[in-house]
Design goal:
The chain is of the alpha+beta class and about 400 residues long. The protein has twelve helices and twelve strands. Helix content is about 40%, strand content about 20%. It binds alpha-D-galactopyranose (GLA). The site of alpha-D-galactopyranose has 11 residues, from helix 6.
Length: about 400
């Protein structure tokens, strides 16, 4: 069988619903039943990379894989995840600890400032998302937590408020200078659609995505806090300041057009020029990609994905050799296109291939990769799934 080797075998972790696992973890840890459960998806970004914090469009898709939290109001704050043996009692006002619980603490602090948190809660978490794979496990965690904890306080936050709480938790509390793409798709996604999100206007447009997307994990983990993403963001802010000297009203880099690039080449310090070129060309590519997807022109969409990857490689310098290799292999074996998805510097590649041979294409990629790197990449597929939801507590 051509595709039996590299595809991930469904383990208990990926087969059981995270809500079910979180609920039983809660019950076995805290010796009582949870009163609330919620879950939220990770995302794969089809295209529109590093545009969300530059006022441009993004085109993400919610994954079928989710993070769930089950909880109950309590006198203290205590958290447990499936990967740890014991619940951790947490002081919400103590300094952050550079641990996964920082994201939860961030959400609780933000909810508290809205009067939407109880005075304490015990919470159990479970996920079937890979961590550090650029598939937004952090937004799945913050969005699911914001939903569950606000419900424990008896509040129903609007979708916009959920996005804002999750964004502020990551940006202001944890200190990752992210944009709002991940939280927005994790809240607003609808089954069977990608979401074109124009970040400067806030306009959302669902674009039907009936088929499957394939994920090929590079196996190289990225860590965002204080790292390369923050550095790129600083470079973009610096570039915007230079651009404003000749375009005083400019609000975002994504407002520039490809016709402005020669002038940018003359005015900006050389290292900043390719960063701006990526943002400007990616903005145009993302809108074209949404139109191509809406029109069912998958070859055009695939070509735009590959051009997007090349722009990340050459101009934004956020790819890694493993991802470049996977994209080249995907194209060689007949995919419509592929690109590194998410922040980069590790993570996963999204592959779009004709439905009738997609599994074969992905198996070939696995084989090429194994020859080159002496290990099989983890690969799996997903359909476009839906955003955050309250879960009924399983018996
Ligand atoms: C991370 C951030 C997002 C976005 C991407 C790059 O995932 O959380 O807001 O900036 O990187 O497109």
């Amino acid at each position: 069988m051509p595709h039996s080797t590299s595809r991930e075998k469904p383990s208990n972790l990926t087969r059981l619903s995270p809500a079910r696992v979180a609920t039983s973890l809660f019950t076995s840890t805290f010796a009582t039943r949870p009163t609330v459960a919620a879950s939220a998806p990770g995302r794969v970004n089809l295209i529109g990379e590093h545009t969300d914090y530059n006022g441009g469009p993004v085109l993400p898709v919610a994954l079928e894989r989710r993070t769930a939290v089950a909880g109950r109001a309590a006198q203290r704050w205590a958290f447990i995840s499936g990967t740890e043996g014991e619940a951790q009692a947490i002081d919400i006002d103590a300094p952050m600890r550079s641990a996964w619980t920082d994201y939860i603490v961030g959400v609780v602090r933000e909810l508290r400032s809205l009067g939407a948190a109880p005075s304490g809660a015990e919470l159990a978490f479970s996920t079937n998302l890979p961590l550090g794979a650029g598939l937004s496990s952090s937004a799945a965690l913050t969005v699911a937590t914001a939903k569950a904890v606000s419900l424990l306080a008896g509040k129903r936050l609007s979708p916009a408020a959920l996005v804002e709480v999750a964004f502020r938790a990551e940006y202001h509390q944890v200190g990752v200078r992210c944009g709002r793409m991940d939280q927005t798709i994790s809240v607003h996604a609808e089954t069977g659609s990608a979401l074109l999100f124009e970040t400067s206007s806030g306009v959302l447009r669902l674009v039907p995505l009936p088929g499957r997307l394939w994920i090929v994990e590079t196996g190289v983990s990225h860590r965002l806090t204080g790292g390369a993403l923050n550095e790129r963001r600083r470079e973009c802010e610096e570039a915007l300041a230079f651009c404003r000297e000749w375009r005083p009203g400019l609000a975002h880099l994504a407002q520039l057009s490809p016709g402005d690039l020669p002038e940018i080449g003359r005015r900006l310090p050389p290292p900043l020029v390719p960063r701006v070129r990526h943002v400007v060309t990616e903005t145009a590519r993302t809108r074209s990609a949404a139109d191509a997807l809406a029109a069912g022109e998958l070859s055009t969409l695939g070509r735009l994905l590959v051009e997007g990857h090349e722009s990340l490689r050459a101009d934004y310098q956020s790819t890694i050799p493993e991802a470049d290799f996977i994209v080249a292999s995907a194209v060689k074996h007949g995919a419509y296109g592929a690109r590194l998805t998410g922040a980069g510097w590790g993570g996963a590649v999204v592959v779009l291939a004709p439905a009738e041979r997609e599994a074969r294409v992905v198996a070939e990629i696995g084989r090429d990769f194994e020859k080159q790197y002496q290990r099989l990449p983890v690969t799996w597929s997903t359909r476009a799934s839906r955003g955050v939801r309250r879960e009924t507590i399983p018996d």
